[in-house]
Write a structure and sequence with these properties.
Layout lengths: L3 E5 L5 H12 L3 E5 L6 H14 L4 E4 L4 H9 L4 E5 L1 H10 L4 H14 L4 E7 L10 H20 L2 E6 L2 E6 L15
Helix pairs in contact: 3-5, 4-6, 5-6
């Protein structure tokens, strides 16, 4: 029961794909949300996400202490969908937390979590132009480093484009998933 990393751009279909993986992975899935609904637009996004995924998932909200939330959720759930790592990294930056240390803690927690499958969703932000300001470059670099660390310990990794998941590492979980694009 290895862990999974699902990467993609904004509105690529990565969360829907991750939800399908979580539903197949467990009878008691949890949706661990890292978003903070600080304004009306974000509150609407959270509402729409909850409505879209339906009542199958128990929702757990945790913007900062992701490792602790995963460890606790693993006591009660056989599948945990984390949505998303890039929002979590943003929350850590805004709280002036040490992102690298938090990622180290996350990796340690994932390795120790053997009773639940953790499916981590994140935005791939390194495909565009180099950001024009230091904070955006720092965010891009931290997200890229986090993705590499998490992908290394996950059994499966997918990149979703236009709703089409491609295997980066592991096996195709359903018909229509593109074959592996890179052999490690």
């Amino acid at each position: 029961m290895g862990h999974v990393l699902v990467l993609g751009g904004a509105r690529s279909g990565k969360t829907g794909f991750a939800e399908r993986l979580a539903m197949r992975a467990g009878l008691r899935p949890a949706y661990l949300a890292t978003a903070q609904a600080l304004d009306a637009e974000m509150r609407e996004r959270v509402r729409a996400h909850r409505e879209q995924r339906g009542p199958q998932f128990e929702t757990i909200e945790e913007p900062l202490r992701l490792s602790r939330a995963i460890a606790e959720a693993a006591r009660h759930h056989d599948a945990i969908l984390v949505d998303c790592l890039t929002l979590w990294i943003t929350n850590l930056i805004m709280a002036e937390e040490n992102v690298a240390a938090a990622v180290d803690e996350l990796v340690t927690t994932l390795v120790a979590t053997t009773t639940s499958r953790v499916i981590l969703v994140s935005n791939e932000v390194g495909l565009g132009i180099v950001p024009d300001n230091a904070m955006a470059r720092m965010f891009r670099d931290l997200a890229g480093a986090a993705h590499q660390r998490v992908a290394e310990i996950c059994d499966d990794a997918y990149f979703v484009v236009a709703g089409l998941p491609m295997v980066l590492k592991g096996v195709a979980p359903e018909p229509g998933v593109a074959r592996r694009v890179h052999e490690a």
